[in-house]
Design goal:
The complex is a heterodimer. Chain A is of the alpha/beta class. In chain A, about 45% of the residues lie in helices and about 15% in strands. By secondary structure, chain B is an alpha/beta fold. Chain B is built from 21 helices and 6 strands. In chain B, helix 1 runs antiparallel to helix 4 (about 55-70) and helix 15 crosses helix 17 (about 395-405). The two termini of chain B are about 50 Å apart. Classes of the chains: A alpha/beta, B alpha/beta. At the A-B interface, helix 3, strand 3, helix 6, helix 10 and strand 11 of A face helix 2, helix 3, helix 10, helix 11 and helix 13 of B. The structure holds adenosine-5'-triphosphate and magnesium ion. Magnesium ion (MG) binds near residues 84 and 214 of chain A.
Chain lengths: ~325, ~525
């Protein structure tokens, strides 16, 4: 693999981002001639809180370093722990446009990077044929130049992120789903932040975007890609953070209920279940409880609403039994 | 810092983490951007740059604690306001060998050291710290407890488990938990406090305060309330245990230096643990590791299958679709052939020494069951039993593996492995069902207590079956020694493989398909 172009080589637009649209706390700061997006970890963490994303210092710290080192972040963790939401929130915070490449099996260069609009090209050629000309030899070169021009280029997310002149956050979601060849392509783009299009030349990024790759860990990613990235394992949040997330995201929830919800979820995650409740499930549950006008969960309520937290029948049964059992079976 | 970092990176490599040169450089760069006195910050900076798999996190944490245990003012070994408990004057690097032992021994004696708190005082502190969830106080209790009870001796090449055990035994945390709960039941949870929620302003407090401050009359706790309270206490106790462990490590580092301690703490990564010598804790780690492993394997195989499925060009379909592009065959279409799937018979020795290996293997095979037209499984010791239906009746593979243990009928005479007998019964009862589409997978160490091998069964099987493989969890060097008769069976197998770790197992199972 080619060495990444020196991280600082492409100037990043930072002040602009921070200043735009009166965004909160993102404090652009002039480092050694090079702009940075976040002044400090606490400032970043606070800023994320203001756009509705509750981070801890570890999480904010990795994002902070990603900016300072000009490296992508690979975010891994169980489903529903806020991987996708993190990228969106950082975009919101910095006032950047979010460009999302949703990965799937079979995703290839033409869908990730760029593609020539050959249908349109075909039509163009046919139109040409319909009006035959005498000096056809010269004509062909002309047509060729024409059909390989901007007008016929279909820009896909990676190219879009590289060519963007305004600040962007690039989210490469569920990267573990792509095939190895596409992964190699991603690595190439993320190493150099440039793309060469044979017919048009090389496009070099004018700024290094913040890049987030998420993975549900269904496949081991290549060593090379992992080496290129900072790694962030997003696990289930602490009791305090989950309570804060519930308070922030569920309208009209009382502190007591948020606390109890977070506690019950923590207890459930300590059980041996097939699938543990995710943050989104915690939120669904809390919202429902509020809708039902419940102020405090008792055994009966828990039993009737557990299906919002847990997806498997056996999990629900086990959880209902455990929650009504007063003391936990010793798990040690 | 750079020096510490170099040592730390080497330690990670010795522990098996694949840290590249680039990553080491990234780590050095990363710590330039964070406040070095902030231990947490150093930890996430190093974690993000050096550890790229969550399965390696534990190994990282252990090494980190050892190498960076002295960093940050609150972690200094010198005792502060807490009184002169323990290792005075020891600092990172100074390594006053001997002082550790003296100080601790004094504490560990009859508690009459005079300048230490008494065990009774400490017990009272502990109770209060747990009741009101005061983290600072918990840390102090941890330090005092180690000084008082661990009886640490200088210069011994140990990892500290024994010290931990001694400290915990003296603290009787189970008893404390029961007393805390008893107090809550009796309506005197009085001083309970949960760390205040961030941003809580009105002082109403959390859920637990609520239930504990209820009117004395209605104060009977419901089971759910009691459960959540108990879980909170348990959580605090776990935190205390971590503090105690950390304290012991800090003292060990001061005594012996980081490198030596890291060495005694080094453990193989879950995927490299030997099945036959795994401790209970390691088995638990492996159990956690096998789920993602199985999931990955499944995804990989499914992908492979779909790839293979792209068959020959379908000319008709291509032409039909070309009409929309004015007759230009712009999108080629392919036929999708249906590949045939093999059927698999797993025949597993589940006697004591190799039971863990058999369980992990069956787990993995069943988690990719969709790759086979049928999976049947048989378990044996000296008798043999088919357990396919247990897997069909169970909701998860884990559950099934657990039930196999309880329900299978594998004892014939004495419950000592007898491969010959088990195999001949297998042949008698199920031999005819093995056919040209069957892959037979035998799992075991072939230690047959000097019974006859009846290896003719394997010959018959190899003639009927598509493939016969043998997986042996013993190191190759031991094959054929003592009562191991794997070489009697080997000639009739398409392959006999050493399979001692999850990593080896995974790669075999992948190639099986
Ligand atoms: N730290 C957080 N602060 C606020 N909300 C959060 C946080 N983490 C997660 N959430 C909420 O949880 C939900 C799930 O998050 P998200 O979709 O980002 O999960 P994910 O990790 O991408 O899951 P998947 O692996 O299924 O894609 C979101 O609706 C988000 O609002
Ligand atoms: Mg997502």
């Amino acid at each position: 693999m080619t060495r990444p172009a020196a991280a600082g080589a492409a100037p990043r637009t930072a002040r602009g981002i921070a200043a735009s649209a009166g965004r909160p706390v993102v404090v652009g700061e002039e480092g050694a001639g090079e702009a940075v997006r976040f002044a400090s970890v606490p400032a970043l963490r606070e800023g994320l809180g203001m756009v509705g994303y509750l981070a801890d210092d570890g999480l904010a710290g990795v994002v902070f370093l990603a900016d300072r080192l000009g490296k992508p972040v690979l975010v891994e963790g169980p489903a529903g722990t806020g991987k996708t939401e993190l990228a969106k929130s950082v975009a919101r915070l910095t006032g950047a446009r979010l460009i999302r490449l949703q990965c799937y099996e079979g995703l290839d260069e033409s869908k990730a990077l760029y593609e020539w609009n050959y249908k349109k090209q075909l039509l163009r050629i046919q139109v040409e044929n319909a009006a035959p000309d005498d000096e056809s030899a010269g004509r062909w070169n002309e047509i060729e130049d024409d059909i390989f021009s901007e007008e016929f280029l279909l820009e896909r997310p990676l190219l879009e992120a590289i060519r963007a002149s305004e600040p962007v956050v690039l989210l490469i979601d569920e990267v573990d789903r792509v095939e190895v060849e596409t992964e190699a392509l991603l690595l190439e783009v993320l190493s150099d932040y440039q793309v060469s299009i044979p017919e048009l030349g090389t496009v070099v990024a004018t700024q290094i975007p913040l890049v987030f790759l998420t993975s549900n860990n269904t496949r081991e990613l290549s060593e090379a890609l992992k080496r290129r990235c900072l790694y962030l394992h997003l696990d289930y949040p602490s009791l305090e953070r989950e309570r804060a997330i519930v308070l922030a995201k569920v309208p009209d929830v009382t502190e007591q209920l948020a606390d109890q919800v977070a506690r019950i979820v923590r207890s459930l995650r300590a059980l041996e279940l097939k699938k543990h409740p995710s943050i989104s499930e915690t939120l669904d549950w809390a919202r429902t409880l509020v809708l039902l006008g419940i102020e405090s969960v008792d055994e009966a309520t828990a039993r009737e609403t557990l299906h919002l937290l847990l997806k498997y029948r056996t999990d629900i049964e086990l959880a209902a039994k455990e929650l009504a059992a007063a003391t936990a079976r010793d798990s040690a | 810092m750079l020096e510490v970092l170099t040592g730390f990176v080497s330690e990670l490599r010795r522990a098996g983490l694949p840290v590249s040169v680039t990553e080491a450089a990234d780590a050095a760069e990363a710590v330039r951007h964070i406040p070095l006195e902030d231990r947490q910050a150093v930890k996430y900076a190093l974690g993000a740059t050096l550890v790229k798999s969550s399965a390696h996190w534990r190994a990282f944490e252990t090494a980190f604690e050892v190498y960076f245990s002295m960093r940050g003012p609150q972690f200094a070994l010198e005792e502060d306001s807490l009184g002169p408990a323990g290792a005075r004057g020891e600092r990172a690097g100074e390594q006053e060998t001997g002082s550790l032992g003296r100080e601790a021994m004094r504490g560990a004696g009859e508690g009459g050291g005079g300048d230490l708190v008494s065990p009774e005082e400490l017990a009272a502190m502990l109770y209060r710290a747990l009741q009101n969830g005061d983290t600072g106080m918990l840390a102090a209790v941890a330090r005092l407890a180690v000084a008082l009870f661990a009886g640490m001796e200088s210069g011994r090449p140990v990892g500290g488990t024994y010290y931990l055990y001694r400290t915990l035994r003296n603290l009787d945390l189970d008893g404390v938990l029961q007393r805390l709960l008893g107090a809550a039941r009796a309506g005197s949870g009085g001083d309970f406090a949960a760390p205040a929620p961030a941003g809580a302003s009105d002082g109403t407090g959390g859920y637990l305060e609520g239930i504990l401050q209820r009117d004395a009359e209605s104060a009977r706790l419901t089971p759910l309330e009691e459960r959540l309270l108990a879980d909170e206490y348990r959580f605090r106790i776990a935190q205390l245990q971590r503090e105690i462990e950390a304290e012991i490590r800090r003292r060990l580092v001061a005594d012996r230096g980081a490198e030596a301690l890291a060495k005694s703490l080094r453990r193989p990564l879950p995927e490299d643990v030997d099945f036959m010598h795994a401790s209970r804790d390691e088995i638990a780690q492996m159990r956690k590791a096998i789920h993602p492993l199985a999931r990955k394997l499944q995804a990989r195989l499914a992908r492979k299958r779909r790839h293979l499925r792209r068959g020959a060009l379908d000319f008709r379909s291509t032409m039909r679709h070309s009409l929309s592009f004015g007759g230009v065959p712009a999108e080629p279409r392919f036929r999708h052939p249906k590949p045939t799937k093999p059927e698999i018979f797993v025949v597993a020795d589940v006697s004591g020494s190799v039971a863990a290996f058999a369980r992990f293997t069956m787990h993995l095979v069943y988690s990719i069951a969709s790759q086979f037209s049928k999976v049947r499984s048989f378990v044996f010791v000296d008798g043999i039993d088919e357990v396919t239906s247990i897997f069909e009746r169970s909701e998860t593979v884990g559950e099934a593996v657990h039930r196999v243990n309880l329900e299978a009928d594998v004892i014939w005479i004495d419950g000592h492995s007898d491969y010959g007998h088990a195999l001949s019964v297998f042949w008698q009862r199920w031999g005819k069902e093995v056919g040209p589409k069957t892959t037979v997978l035998v799992l075991g160490d072939a230690r047959s207590n000097y019974h006859s091998s009846e290896s003719w069964v394997m010959r018959e099987l190899s003639e009927r079956a598509r493939r016969v493989y043998w997986l042996n969890p013993e190191p190759k060097a031991y094959w054929g020694s003592g009562d191991s008769i794997v070489d009697k069976y080997a000639p009739f197998c398409d392959g006999v493989y050493e399979c001692r770790t999850l990593r080896q197992l995974e790669s075999f199972v992948e190639h099986l398909v």
